[in-house]
TrEMBL record:
It comes from the Eukaryota. PANTHER family: REVERSE TRANSCRIPTASE DOMAIN-CONTAINING PROTEIN (PTHR24559:SF444), TRANSPOSON TY3-I GAG-POL POLYPROTEIN (PTHR24559). Residues 20-191 form the Reverse transcriptase domain. This is Putative retrotransposon. GO terms for molecular function: endonuclease activity; peptidase activity; RNA-directed DNA polymerase activity. GO terms for biological process: proteolysis. Coiled coil: none annotated. InterPro entries: DNA/RNA_pol_sf, Rev_trsase/Diguanyl_cyclase, RNA-dir_DNA_polymerase, RT_dom. It comes from Pseudoloma neurophilia. Pfam families: RVT_1 (PF00078). Keywords: Endonuclease, Hydrolase, Nuclease, Nucleotidyltransferase, Protease, RNA-directed DNA polymerase, Transferase.
Length: 191
């Protein structure tokens, strides 16, 4: 285990307690163990990252297509209204496969833990999240919705149509049990 300052140790303790409380991680008996890497956030708090490089090296890569931003923008040419919806802690909203949880294990002085929800840093996390979002919006994708990882872009030709599209999208998000980050959502933007 690396050495951390007292401040970093306190931040890591707090973050682990929070992740346990939110059922994002759980105690583990896994033989796997990746290193904790605390990353400072702009607001002064700490983002608890795990160095999954060894796990990623041993992982069979998913080849699900993640769209390119340029392609999405090219397909928005005729739209007049836009909304961008941001999934709250996107990856954490997806459950880890039971057989994969033990591979996400990490240790801290308070114990050995593994992720119940999908963490950031896994090589297949973007593909897995993109696939999940594309499945949720299968009928709407390309018609009035584009998904780019944890962002959902809703686009329409006029305001009335945009309201209907947003109602549909919000309903799908609710049905899927996902939550949005209102601070990062941008609604009813014009061109």
């Amino acid at each position: 285990m690396h050495r951390f300052s007292i401040h970093q140790q306190n931040e890591i303790n707090d973050e682990i307690e929070k992740l346990l409380r939110l059922k994002i991680i759980q105690k583990s008996k896994s033989p796997w163990c990746s290193q904790i890497v605390p990353i400072p956030k702009p607001d002064g708090s700490t983002w608890l990252c795990i160095d999954f490089r060894a796990l990623n090296k041993a992982t069979i890569k998913d080849s699900y297509p993640v769209p390119r931003i340029e392609e999405i923008i090219d397909n928005l040419q005729n739209a007049k209204y836009f909304s961008i919806l941001d999934a709250t802690s996107g990856y954490y909203q997806l459950n880890m496969d039971d057989g994969s949880r033990e591979k996400t294990a990490f240790s801290w002085k308070t114990g050995h833990y593994e992720f119940v929800r999908m963490p950031f840093g896994l090589c297949n996390a973007p593909d897995t999240f993109q696939r999940a979002m594309d499945e949720i919006f299968q009928k709407e994708s390309g018609r009035f919705v584009f998904n780019y990882l944890d962002d959902t872009i809703v686009f329409s030709k006029n305001e009335a149509e945009h309201k209907k599209h947003l109602d549909t999208v919000f309903g799908k998000i609710r049905s899927a049990g996902l939550s949005l980050n209102p601070k990062k959502c941008k609604l009813f933007r014009k061109e």
